[in-house]
Amino acid sequence: ERLDALAGKIAGKLGADASLASRAAQLAKTDLVTDMVGEFPELQGIMGRYYALHDGEDQQVADAIQSHYQPRFAGDVLPQGPIACAAALADKLDAMVGFFGIGQIPTGDKDPFGLRRAALGVLRILMESPLPLDLAALIADAQAGFAAGTLTQPVAEPLLDFMLDRLRGLLKDAGYAQDVIEAVLAQRPTRIDLVPAKLSAVRDFLQLPEALALAAANKRIGNILKKAEGAQPAPSASLLAEDAEKALFERVQAIAPVVAKHVAGQDYAGALKVLATVRGEVDHFFDKVMVNADDPAVRANRLGLLKALFDQLNAVADISK
Length: 321
Hints:
This protein is mainly α. It has helices at residues 2-13, 18-27, 35-39, 46-54, 59-67, 82-101, 115-128, 135-144, 156-173, 178-185, 195-206, 211-227, 243-264, 268-276, 279-288, 296-313.
């Protein structure tokens, strides 16, 4: 019943027929009670597909019954089409959420319930298909399917951490550099389908002459903001005294809508190229301006300006990494 509801919900998010996905999830495990699969366990799913076709079920339902176990190992084929993907995601997410919710989390090399494989399967389906689904929302949907009181341990954050850790390994195996991976994963992305575009944008950004100086500035700003007390206000032009801070303010105001437009359009490389142009003003600001001014209003305004810049610089990835 949980798989039925969850698969239907996922299919609906993909604009596919929710009733077909629910039907596939309903029938996905029925071949496990047959003598054929009892005798030959490796035929699970395969026999289910044959039985479903023989019974006149929809072709997409039958295919989803077989492929909801995929990918079963590294390099295995992925389920094809939204119905099969919905059933496969529901099966894997339900298992992970259920086991995490009762404290059965893999430790060391022990993983008796195949949760690492399930996590990698979910990540590959979302990233390689690719599917415009939010991982945190999928985890919440899976969690909502359990009766109240069934899950006694925290699930959402620990499971997301676990999956991002698997993603780190997956990307490393795919040949991405460690610093590029860390820059993107530091933001705890939940739209896994957008991760490859962000990685390649960061990789391109690294080739720009401004990259290292901006990364260092970003780290410095992060440290300054960490030490600052209270929330930073939006910067006000009326409190700007030095030419260097006025120039930085104008540049930040000018690039904000451009960066936002690039990010919204998933043009991450474009966003980072625009951000690279701010290097001159950043260097000049740190040369000429004392952030911790004696006047509390001026100090707060300068911190607010740095916060606005920091948000821009980290719109795609944490470039300080």
